[in-house]
Amino acid sequence: MKEFLGFGGYSRAAEGAYSWQHLLFVGSLLAIMTVLAVVLGRKNRNSSVQQKNKVLIAAAILIDTFEIFKIVVLCLRSESLDPVAHNLPLFLCSIQLIAIPLAAFSKGSIKEAAIDFVCIFGILGAVFGTVGAAQNYNAYPVLSMDNVVSGITHCISGFASLYILFSRMERMRKENMLITYSILIVFCIAAYAANILVDYNYMFLMSGDGTPYDILYNLVNGNRVLYPLLVVALFVIYIFAFYKIFHLIADKRSEKAAV
Fold first, then answer.
1. What's the Cα-to-Cα distance from 42 to each of 35, 39, 49, 157, 259, rounded to whole Å?
2. 20-78: per-residue pLDDT in tens?
3. Dihedral sign of CA atoms 57, 63, 67, 73 in order
4. How many angstroms separate the CA atoms of 223 and 192, rounded?
5. Residue 258's pLDDT band (boundaries 50, 70, 90)?
6. C-alpha span between 5 and 144 (Å, rounded)
């Protein structure tokens, strides 16, 4: 257990990004995530809103519990509170630590917008935070607290996203799009400010850091202004595209039902 939690450092070498151990581990997590979301989503599709919401409540409690556990272990390992500053919910995927509880416990348009936000970014964060997390699997062994807890929390986000779709909880009302954009922009501003204050890379606004964002970073030669603006622009475009595709599919489904 001491070795799993990383006290005194890991004696095992990291297997490396995209090693068979990395891909087998995250592939298993993604498979479990998908099966659970599909089974529970289809089971609750015709249930009451309250019944559907119970699954989101469980996801909200689990994701925050795992994250708090990770931060406590990191603080104990470093014998300081320094890890807190580097584990704020200011990455695109870790915003779900706030968004999923909002989706589970809030009401009205805030709840609808939070559900849509989780739906839009949950699966993206799950894939990028597991398969795309090259820096983590180059730094820590696959079966370590750092990677296991990270994999679980990212997959809870992906689970919530897929569950919302399969249980038909999403609304994707165009009038709520402004709230969705507002949530994103507020977190981006907070992330950029935190990056400057604590010298970190929240939202990957400072560099790609071994992730697919490196493609964009290299494209603009690491320009300090263009790079973060393009990262935010990609988020905005992704939200717009998700809404557009969702409504195209919904319209076609309605046409078929009418026929």
1. 11, 5, 14, 18, 24
2. 999 999 999 999 999 999 999 999 999 999 999 999 999 999 999 999 999 999 999 99
3. positive
4. 15
5. low
6. 6
Q: Tokens standing for 67? A: 């994250």
Distances (CA, A) of 25 to 1, 46, 141, 142, 152: 19, 33, 11, 7, 11
Contacts by 65-73, CB closer than 8 A, 24 or more apart: 66/149, 66/152, 66/153, 66/156, 67/94, 67/97, 67/149, 67/153, 69/149, 70/145, 70/146, 70/149, 70/150, 70/153, 73/5, 73/6, 73/145
Helix (H, G, I), strand (E, B) or coil at 180: helix
What is the reported pTM?
0.90
Whether residue 109 is predicted with pLDDT greater than 80 in this model: the reply is yes
Confidence of residue 252 (pLDDT cuts 50, 70, 90): confident
- What is the C-alpha to C-alpha distance for residues 96 and 118, in angstroms, rounded to an integer? 7
Query: What is d(CA 46, CA 49) in angstroms, rounded to the nearest whole number?
Result: 9
The single residue listed with the structure tokens 């606004």 is 205
Provide CB contacts within 8 A for 248, sequence distance 6+.
none
Cα angle value 154/157/160 (rounded, 5°): 150
* CA distances in angstroms from 11 to 6, 28, 164, listed in the order given: 9, 25, 41
49 touches 167 (CB < 8 A): no
